[in-house]
Prior knowledge:
- The protein has ten helices and seven strands.
- The protein is about 40% helix and about 10% strand.
- The model has no long low-confidence stretch (mean pLDDT about 95).
- A five-stranded parallel β-sheet has the order 1-2-3-7-6, with helices on both faces. The chain has a two-stranded antiparallel sheet with strand order 4-5.
- It is α/β, with parallel strands linked by helices.
Amino acid sequence: MTNIVVIPDREALAQVSRIIRAEIIETSHKSEAMHLGGCLSCVDILVSLYFGVMSIRPDDPDWLERDRFILSKGHAALALYTVLAHRGYYPREQIDTFNKDQSRFTEHPIWKNLPGIDATTGSLGHGLGIACGMALAARINDKSYRTFILMSDGECEEGSVWEAALFAPVHPLGKLIAIIDYNKWQACGRSNEIMNLSPLSLKFSTFGWAAYEVDGHNIGAMLSLFRSILDSPDQRPVVIIAHTIKGKGVSFMEDDNNWHYRIPTAEEVMAAHRELDVL
């Protein structure tokens, strides 16, 4: 099987997102793993990228011309693992070992530990620098692949993010596309109450990036935006501020920061599945 780009049916992708959210919640319960809220906020972004935008071959994960992806918010690894399983990188059943001793499905992604993982992440703020290196390598070697990176809003408080943000426009890294999962929360509180992040898009555009904002749960809007960006001759690096909701998809989890660390009970898993209409 060789899949380079899947032609997206937006309604079908919305259903894929619901199923993936249900599986993430169930796995969090079984594995007693936290970071559920941040996993649920980025599902629609990952589904849009992997099912409608990125040039990849799940049966040849090291294909040299593939688009690269870095999950800089590595604590959302369970979301990435589940999307990769649905995209065909490995059987879904393997994720049942998530967060268990000796499992390849670690709480944060490890390069080469699994097919489809392009970088080890978890220590926040390092992903954008790695992505700059990958994008620069593509430019030097005259390669056409794009480098995508998904960051959290909280990690934009790291100084290393802004060093990379200064670097990218100078070279210029036009095939670098950064997406910020802007759910407005971090572990200890509201992101904009802990550091002065807003306005993020203006900060990046002032640094020389092409900056866009989008509803990070509207798959149709994201696909349209990605298409316009990929068709553009603009050679500036791109940042997309994706406005999202932590815990998206389940009413008693949405915008409740307790779900940064809370693990759902069996009863809550069932209630979530009913809301997601996957029973």
